[in-house]
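Handout, section B. The chain below has 219 residues.
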Amino acid sequence: MSVEQRLGDVQGRMAKAAREANRKPESVSLVAVSKTFEAGDIRPVIAAGQRVFGENRVQEAQGKWPVLQAETAGIELHLIGPLQSNKAAEAVAIFDVIETVDREKIARAVAEECKRQNRTLRFYVQVNTGLEPQKAGIAPDDVATFVRLCRDELGLNIEGLMCIPPVDENPGPHFALLAKLAEENDVAGLSMGMSGDFETAVGFGATSVRVGSAIFGSR
């Protein structure tokens, strides 16, 4: 299949999963994960109508997206990988959405940069639903306190929660937990589900899914 066909296949599967969950297909957005792919690989996906993309690294995004954004209006860029505080200025300058706010130091750094650059971004709090020691994210029990800090003290627009379930576990309970935490904290967005489990995520209420290899092929 061509990349355009793979994109269409993912969109069709998302829509089917939404309908099966008694949801409107347009209630779920697709973040096409373009990390490690060059501008030449991304252009056909843009040409096919995709406008929302995810990148893992600030430096990589800086190297390819300014040109692509100059070519096509309406591109929305999400940071879906870990953010170091020393990259906060660059991240706020290039991204529209940062999905990996995972500790107070990062929250304060991006809040400061938003004020300094006079930019309004949307943010997601990354939740470590599996309490994995090697993985970033706020512990589920700490989400309420952290969301209040981000919103009330720092003035961040916390649009949603994001998670990456443990690879060796059924993702369903993790998606259900994230949805419960979002409801408890009056957060509308749920960024969950990747190439292998995005249909399951849609069934649990995902408002956006992050899909890379199912669109772009293997890296």
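Note. DSSP finds nine helices and eight strands in the chain. Compare this with the example in section A.
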